[in-house]
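Hey, I was hoping to borrow your eyes for a little while. I'm sending you its amino acid sequence along with the backbone structure tokens. Take your time with it, there's no hurry, and the full record follows here.
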Amino acid sequence: MTGTIVNTATVLAGGLLGTALSSGLPVRVRETLMTGMSLVVITMGIKMALETSSILIVLGSITIGGIAGELLHLQRRFDAAGMWLERALSRYPVFTRGNFSQGIVTASLVFCVGPMTILGSIQDGLTGDSTILIVKSVLDGFAAVAFASVMGIGVAFSAGVVLIVQGTLTLGSSYFSQILSEQMVSELTATGGVIMLGIAIHMLELKKIRLANYLPALAVAPLIVWISGIIQ
């Protein structure tokens, strides 16, 4: 769990530092930062999406996952939880700056969707080698500072999501290493890349996207690979 603990700490520290810096940044600087981060997220999304060996698997994952997310009202639940937490902490001025729920959802997706999360957590759990997660921790720490300077303290709270997701993968590494084939990881990564592109579109305010409703697609992708393997 060493890598996960370090990653959680860097996201928390980066989120708090970015929030502290945000109060001194002019609006135009925050807008420029948001645009710059959106462009980086687009680049990440495209790179991840190109991992696919079959675009039909990604299409099926996004379609089925999106329908499941809509039926489960995931975005509504995420927003409600974020608003409840924001109201509960509203006595502290720092929690009123930025978009609290957007900060949690956006940062959580960016920090938890990707091959470094999956492979690094499994490697840490199986061998105790946390090299991949340590590298990811440094990258996530700098990203958290940038995100929090625009979206506020919600980014720091995404550290909890990082702890849960990566901790689960690490503790269940022996199980996940057996069921997740290389193709499953690739298609999961590619599907996550498409969601990352959605994040960038949402950040640029080109279209309001219910991003959380696509989260089930990350579970659907390896499932489709498994089913296609049985059929073949």
